[in-house]
Structures are given as structure tokens and as C-alpha cells.
Amino acid sequence: MVNAGIFAALRDGFPADLDRIAIETADGPGAPLAYTWRDLERGTAMMANVLASLHLADGSRIAVQTDKSVEALMLYLAVQRAGYVYLPLNSAYQQHEIEYFIRDAEPAVVVCTPKNFTWISRLAFSGGTKNVFTLGDDRTGSLLERAALMSEQHAPAVKRDDDLAAILYTSGTTGRSKGAMLTHGNLVSNARVLKDYWGWQLGDVLIHALPIFHVHGLFVASHGALLNGSKMIWFSRFDPKATIERFAEATVFMGVPTLYTRLLGEAGLTPDACRHMRVFISGSAPLQVETFDAWRERTGHTIVERYGMSETVMLTSNPYREADGERRRGTVGFPLPGVGVRVRNERGEPCPAGEIGGIEVKGPNVFAGYWRMPEKTQEEFTADGWFKTGDVGLIDERGYLRIVGRSKDLVITGGYNVYPAEIEGLINEMDGVAESAVIGLPHPDFGEGVVAVVVPKPGAALDGDTIVGSLKQRIANFKVPKQVFVVDELPRNTMGKVQKNLLRQQHQGLFGG
Question: How many angstroms separate the CA atoms of 372 and 370, rounded?
């Protein structure tokens, strides 16, 4: 089916008056800066023309690791406008990680911050990439210099629903990252469903305080505002006090649980401060019931908690409209329109209401598979075409989905996914290390904190701070353990498997969570 693609769908939502403000920066170089809808139209056209001038093959990947900026958002839109595949990379990723992504995705173009150009360009060129541009958060860089020479006119590429729009890497449980392939149909269908389900309306203003290298900030928040023709108040970095001060000008806020706990720490968070807000939405990690209750008590608003994944965009949500039901704490609501959600036991049988099992999903939002991993893709889908999320949960008697755990020991810290196998592999390579186990423990700020338990080789002396320091040179900071314990041995069951549940129990109160 021809749908024209996600860029065309978003541009259809632009207001008739293109001289209205689309994005206002709240911080960063030169703030406040105002970008009109005409600026978005012109800027994306000029950047798309840069890509067109390179004569790239159909389906070429454009890998981007930059700091958050309006120009970085324009770049994403320009990639979609030009008809290529967007590959966002977490700005915290280090050389070890970037090297893998470049080798695996083989991007035709890499865009990075000016400060990282030397080492990223070296990796890119050695990996076969022919084009490397820079883009700073202060409106500098070779990409903008090239774009300034381009025409302001560009005819958007027409894309089919099943054409690839983006690849999002999500760490594999074996330590190897997997590239989730999202199509134009995935993104368009989900954006339109959320526009209706969350009641986007004329005059809405979004406070955008999320990163734009993953689903939440890029596909949920940004798409929502653009599709609705809504102004965004743009924070390059989250500042709880400054955010509260802007509530009077906004109506919509989206955040991970960590942001809500930090906002609750501000004395200025009051019902009066939130009187202009229409809805607060939380996702990317479980929202603690204490946070849910405290937010309602402090603000008079009930948070809408939802559930999604890199592979599926959004799947479920607590209701926005009272007529659709209450917002139940500890749940992620109902399946979104057009989305199927079921819970099955290990034998593949449907679980009755209240019984815990594996969560499986189906719908137009579910990804096309993992990049260049057909066998892994096949493993993750059932024979009748449902995607196995790896999450464990139940559907209660009223139809609300409750997530009670995650398979494969996934840790979610501050809204970011951390897979222990990746960290364990790096620790186990270090001198003097016999083996290690990485777990997540309740953390009052981040939801979960990463902790490593390490066993030394006979005669070796290990130091936790040294291990942490070494990891900081190789991986993103959010993956680095907040504490390392050195022990004589790891607990195992009769089959020899490490019992991480016992490690979690042993260190349960480490962070006071």
C-alpha cells in the first residue's frame, strides 16, 4: 500500500499559517530561539537536498549520533523526506559500541558532533561509509554548511507502508545488539492512533524534555506534536525547576518515571503550577505506585502510563478519556485500537484473567524484523504471527495489562534498556576476572540501578572502582554499574545456572528503593 510515508503524514499536520512558531528552545546556545513551521519546511528541504546530492542507493542508512537540537530533529525529518532509513544512536555510546553499529548497519552517511568527528570518521571510513558530516547543538557543522548551498524546494519521496523508515538498535541478551526495523506503516499508524487516543487538540503545546534517539522522544513525543500542528517548548536537557516554570504555557508533558520523581522533588510543583496542563504521560520504564499517588496528590493530575518497545512503538495505554475507563496505577492500560495483546503460558495456552504469562502482541505497529538477523526474527514470532515481547505480565479481570517482570533479566535504568550480558562480557574480559553477574536493583531516582557482582581468578585482587573506570571508557554511562561487589563465588542452582534472584534479594536495599 502507498501511504506517502511518515514525513508526508507529519507535514499534512502542519498548520495553514506556516509563520506560526513550531518550536521554541528553552535552553541551549542562543535560547530562546523560535523556529516557525516554514523554517521546518525549508530546513528539511535543504537537508534532504544534501542527501539527494550524494546519489545514495535506495534504502541507504543514515546513522546519526548528535546532541539534541532542533536541527537534529530537522535532520531526522529530512532523512524521511528524502526516503532513506534513519539510524539514531544514543549520544552516550562510546567507540566500542559505535564501531559495532557502523560495521553492522553499513550506513551510507554518518552524522556526528564536531567534537567526535576525528574518531567517528575514522571508524566510519574504515567501515566503508563514504560520507561523514558534523552537526553541533549550536547550529554549526559541515551538514548545515552544505545545506545552506541547497535549494529550499524538495519533492518528498513517496514511500509504501512496508518500506523501511528507521532502524533502532536494542541490545541483545547475548550481548549482540539487534536492529529493529520499523516501517513507514508502523510509524504512521501508531502516530495517528495516539493522536486520537490521547486527545490531541487544537492549541496543544508540548514540553519536549526527552532525548530524540529513541522511540519515546522521537516517535511518540515529536510525532505527536508535529502531526497535530502543535508548538513544542524544547529542552535540550531536562531541568525540573525550569520545566515546571513552563507548565503555564503548555498542555502536554511526556516523561520517563525518573523525570517525574525529580519533578516531585521541586517545591514549585503545585496544582496551581499545573492548572494549564491537559495531560501527563509516562513510559519507557515502570512507574512506581508511590510516584503515581504522589503526583496525583501534589498536582491534581493522574498520570497516563503506557507501554511500548523499540520493536513495536506504542502498544497499550491507560485511558485519556474518562468514558474509556479509569487510569489504574500499576497497570499500562488497554491495547491501543488496532493492536492485539495476549498473555500465554509456557505451553502456548492462553492465560485466564489474572494469570501471569508471556506477553505477545500483533498489529500494524509491530516491526518488520531484526536487521540482517532472519533466524532471530523467526524465533521472536509465534507460528501464528504474534511478536513475543519478552515481558511477563497479566491481564486483569477488567482488561488492564499489568507488567510484572521481564525475561532475560533486562534492566531499565532512567528509561534506558541495559542488557546484563553485554556488561558481563566486557567485565569478564578484564584481567583477573573469573566471572561476573550484572543485575538491576530498585533505585528511587532511576527506577533501577545497575550493579555488578564479580568473582576474581585465584590469586587476583580486584578493585570495584577500577572496573567501573574501565567500563566508562568503553560504554555509555547509563550502562556502567553504580556499584561493583567482589565476592568469592556466585550462587548457582543444581543445573549450574547463576541465581540472579538471590543476588537481587541479597542487595535489595542498596539504593534505598
Answer: 6
